[in-house]
Amino acid sequence: MYPYVRLNGSITHHEDATVSPISPGFLYGDGAFETVRWVLGSGAFRLGDHAARLTRALEFLGISPAPTAAECAAAMRETVAVNAPDGDVAVRLTVAEGETPGNPTTLVMLRDIPYTAEMYERGVSATLLEGGGGPLTKHKSLNYAAHWRARRIAAMGGYAEALAYDAQGHILEGSTSNLFIVSQGKAMTPPSDMPLLPGITRAAVLDFAAADGIVAEERVISRPDLRRADEAFLTNAVAGVLPLTGVDGDAIGTGGVGPVTARLAAAYRRAVADELDSRA
Q1: Cα–Cα distance between 58 and 67 in angstroms, integer?
Q2: Parallel, antiparallel, or unpaired: how do β-strands 231-236 and 240-247 relate?
Q3: How far apart (Å, rounded) are the C-alpha atoms in residues 43 and 36?
Q4: Backbone angles phi, psi at 113, to 5 degrees
Q5: Which residues contact 251 (CB under 8 A, 6 or more apart)?
Q6: CB under 8 Å to 118, separation ≥6 — which residues?
Q7: pLDDT tens across 6-17, in order?
Q8: What is the pTM (predicted TM-score) of this model?
Q9: Which residues of 211-236 are buried (b: 16+ CB within 10 A; e: fewer)?
Q10: Among 44, 71, 155, 166, whose Cα sits 20 to 30 Å from the Cα of 102?
Q11: 117-276 under CATH 3.10.520.10, yes or no
Q12: pLDDT (tens digit per residue) in 138-156
């Protein structure tokens, strides 16, 4: 935990930060959030897209005003600067309904990146859990208990992620990630009209695949599809492209990082560097 947070526009020590105990944000999880990877000295990739998604979520929930992209960037930059991390960090911006309408609680906080070099080199494993769905699925809502429970179950079993599947056995998404599989050189990810959150990084990877000559498409993915895949990987804004090499104790493909995964991971790293360099 980094010592300083930005609460309602002011920097304060996290031990001194307080919110109203009768606010709907605290009582009912009435709010939304975005988490990005802040590259030290540069900023966050596609931050404008994250700000736009946050605005859509807040509009859906009826919470206003939503911070602009410029306000999001400034708040994150200030919080990173005062904490002075020595590397990349995950920055979370939360906006929750306050005690009175029109005065939302806004919080910016930092945490360390949980993904290690070994995870990218060797890949990670996931477990499959039935679940997912609901009216808030398309938004990064503070109603996050189901995702948190799934992630906790995964961690207890020694897995890095939990992948949710529906009653038909179709895989939806991870607790904090989107899923891609690769079969015969083609990358596939569950369709965005399914009950899942189509991530900013997911969309970027689809763009990179097209630009790099890799066939990529949205397609319903079953549990057997995942087990038969040649490769698989996860995406989110903090991890980028993270190889998925096993599921429930079984290897995916050869059990190592596949060539398509490696190409798309490299394309993602180049795009992040290019975008952030262009701001300098």
Answers
A1: 10
A2: antiparallel
A3: 9
A4: -70, 125
A5: 245
A6: none
A7: 999 999 999 999
A8: 0.96
A9: eeebebeeeebeeebbeebbbbbbbb
A10: 44
A11: no
A12: 999 999 999 999 999 999 9
